[in-house]
Design a protein that fits this description.
heterodimer; A: 86 residues; mainly alpha; Non-ribosomal Peptide Synthetase Peptidyl Carrier Protein, Chain A; B: 338 residues; alpha/beta; Rossmann fold; Aminopeptidase; 2 domains; eight-stranded mixed beta sheet
């Protein structure tokens, strides 16, 4: 089973791959993903959600109308964790 | 609607096998080269997916006299090449046609990517008469589409080599976004965008030139265009929106942007501009009714990033994204002007 710390680590890893920058690896869990935080734009955000769907089988865009799960690294990790098969 | 044709080279676009005659590579197939030129003239992009070294693409460009918006020359699966080309051009795979003489390659692409229109070379002459290959409107932007995507290729190559942030890169490119009221001459392009945009389209249905003209003339609406340019070239009109200004709250019945402009700050600048314009006119809130579809996730991410929230569950497939205009509004970047 994938634990919460492991999901958070994988989300940070994914963000580092998408941004081509290793800063997300050490970023605090409350760092926002869009704009002033990690700095994802709509393209980066779409790549992130596509990869989350592929790796974890969680369809964030389909389930979270407001995309509140993009509020921070921790919010996205919790959203994924809550939907992983137990 | 087909936006890109991906060509195989050996025994398809070239009349022979490239590697079998390195000293004198095969000439281009004249009939297919003619069709390629016709399709390029209709604003349809051309790309190459070939099991050859990269030199084969350069040779095909020189020999046919046409440029290609994306090129994949390697020994991987053709379906992977087609998927990468669609991603690079930011178009959906159902807007891609794939032409290959090899039935096995066609079957592999059709199996892995069922949305792609897969054609044998001898089917192409007939296929080009199909509506999917015949855009109803062809604008200046449409005719220059191949050239614009070539500039995009150069920009992406520089972006990969550039070390700084996205904002720094946009400034380094001397990005310019200009937002202006739509004029009569802009109506065909606005109609074309309403037909062609999906990833950045809030309404999910097209508007005719007449409808855009009526809205532009209406005292209760504003229709605006968004133009984009940088030091690589001038993209012309890449987006627009319709704003209903008569109520206490302003509403945006249509917000759209070409996927060619993705990653260049355009949608963020447009949303910041609309928020600021609505607040200056005294509107307390801005509403964007938005289709909820798997295809326009990029637009919904942009709305979320600009502080919009969808209040309730969607009705008839649309959610009402709203933003109060009293808290700090998203900043209009220095390179955007109205």
């Amino acid at each position: 089973m994938t634990g919460p710390a492991d999901v958070t680590r994988q989300v940070r890893q994914l963000l580092a791959e998408i941004t081509g920058d290793d800063r997300p690896l050490g970023a605090a869990a409350d760092t926002p993903l869009l704009r002033d935080g990690i700095g994802l734009d709509s393209l980066g955000g779409t790549v992130l959600l596509t990869e989350v769907h592929r790796r974890f089988g969680v369809d964030v865009a389909g389930e979270d109308l407001n995309l509140d799960s993009l509020a921070s690294i921790g919010a996205l990790a919790s959203f994924i964790q809550a939907r992983l098969p137990r | 609607m087909i936006k890109c044709v991906v060509w195989d080279l050996d025994n398809t676009l070239l009349d022979g096998v490239f590697l079998e005659s390195p000293d004198q590579p095969p000439a281009p197939d004249p009939a297919l080269t003619g069709i390629l030129g016709e399709l390029a003239g209709r604003g349809i992009l051309q790309a190459i997916a070939s099991r050859n070294p990269p030199e084969a693409a350069g040779y095909a460009e020189r020999a046919t006299g046409h440029s290609f918006a994306a090129v994949r020359c390697d020994w991987g699966a053709k379906s992977a090449a087609v998927r990468q080309i669609a991603a690079e051009l930011a178009i959906a795979t159902d807007a891609v046609a794939f032409v290959d003489d090899d039935a096995l390659e066609r079957a592999e692409v059709a199996y892995a990517l069922p949305d792609v229109l897969v054609l044998a070379p001898d089917e192409l002459a007939d296929a080009v008469t199909w509506p999917a290959f015949s855009p109803a409107v062809l604008t200046e932007e449409g005719r220059r589409r191949g050239e614009l995507y070539l500039q995009r290729r150069q920009r992406q190559e520089e972006a990969r080599a550039f070390g700084g942030s996205r904002d720094e890169f946009l400034r380094y490119c001397r990005t310019r976004v200009r937002i202006a009221p739509a004029e009569r001459a802009d109506l065909p392009r606005l109609h074309e965008l309403s037909v062609r945009t999906h990833q950045f389209n809030s309404a999910g249905h097209e508007l005719s030139e007449q409808e855009f003209g009526d809205l532009a003339a209406s005292p209760r609406h504003q229709v605006v265009t968004v133009r984009l340019s940088d030091r690589f070239g001038d993209d012309g009109i890449v987006g627009g929106c319709v704003i209903a200004t008569s109520g206490a709250e302003w509403e945006v019945p249509l917000l759209m942007m070409s996927c060619r402009a993705i990653g260049r700050g355009v949608i963020d600048a447009l949303l910041a501009w609309v928020c600021r314009t609505a607040r200056a006119a005294g509107a307390p809130q801005l509403i964007v009714p938005c289709l909820i579809s798997p295809r326009n996730v990029p637009l919904r991410i942009a709305l979320t990033g600009a502080g919009f929230r969808a209040g309730q569950q969607p009705q008839a497939g649309h959610a009402r994204y709203a933003r109060q205009l009293d808290d700090p509004l998203p900043a209009l970047p220095g390179w955007a002007a109205s």
